[in-house]
Design a protein that fits this description.
The chain is an alpha/beta fold. It is built from nine helices and five strands; from the N terminus they run E-H-E-H-E-H-E-H-E-H-H-H-H-H. The protein has two domains: 123 residues, Response regulator (Rossmann fold), CATH 3.40.50.2300; 55 residues, Winged helix-like DNA-binding domain superfamily/Winged helix DNA-binding domain (Arc Repressor Mutant, subunit A). The chain starts with 6 loop residues before the first strand and ends with a helix.
Length: 192
């Protein structure tokens, strides 16, 4: 499987899954659907999702237990958001956040709010997965300011070959092909 990692939408209600998926896919973000916590864990084991949108009340294992398992498996870098129409009390939301969710949205959720959360959290997730060194961030920032490789070397008081290596490493880590693409992606991910 190639391309961007999908947002994993987990809900035992087929119409809820379809609605959330259609809203997200409409803006070009791929989704993967699961009808239960067990199915979600199996899909996540096959491919790490970019984010998980998770119902709380499901047959088998609950959304809370699914969140706990996902958090154990992937750590804090995987964004997990609960979407619930039944567990809506403040203590339900507090429990979800204490278990490890990044957010807790109530159904029906507005399309704008859903997309805002998805975009913000998937960008954060991508950011956390790109381990640029402080020097590489600095070099990308100087590229964004319009400096050439030689000017970056002069600015940082390093050899031009060293500046070129920093640029090469940053471009590679960002998964792009050019300096311009690296700057664009770094801005989008708020790395600079």
């Amino acid at each position: 499987m190639s391309g961007a990692a999908p947002v994993l939408v987990v809900d035992d209600d087929e119409s809820a899954r379809a609605f959330v998926s259609s809203v997200i896919e409409r803006v070009g973000i791929p989704t993967q659907l699961a009808a239960s916590g067990i199915e979600a864990l199996e899909l996540a084991a096959e491919r790490r999702p970019a984010m998980v949108l998770l119902d709380v009340s499901m047959p088998g294992i609950s959304g809370y237990e699914t969140c706990h398992e996902l958090r154990n498996r992937f750590g804090p870098s995987l964004p997990i958001v609960f979407l619930s129409g039944e567990r809506v009390e403040p203590y339900d939301r507090a429990a979800g956040l204490l278990i490890g969710a990044d957010d807790y949205l109530l159904k029906p959720v507005s399309q704008d709010e859903l997309l805002a959360r998805v975009r913000t959290l998937t960008a954060r997730s991508e950011y956390e997965e790109i381990p640029l060194t402080p020097r590489e961030r600095e070099v990308i920032g100087l590229l964004a300011d319009g400096l050439s490789g030689r000017e970056i070397a002069e600015h940082l008081v390093i050899a031009p070959s060293t500046a070129a290596k920093h640029i090469e490493h940053a471009v590679g880590k960002l998964g792009v092909r050019s300096r311009t693409q690296a700057v664009v992606k770094a801005y989008r991910l708020r790395l600079i």
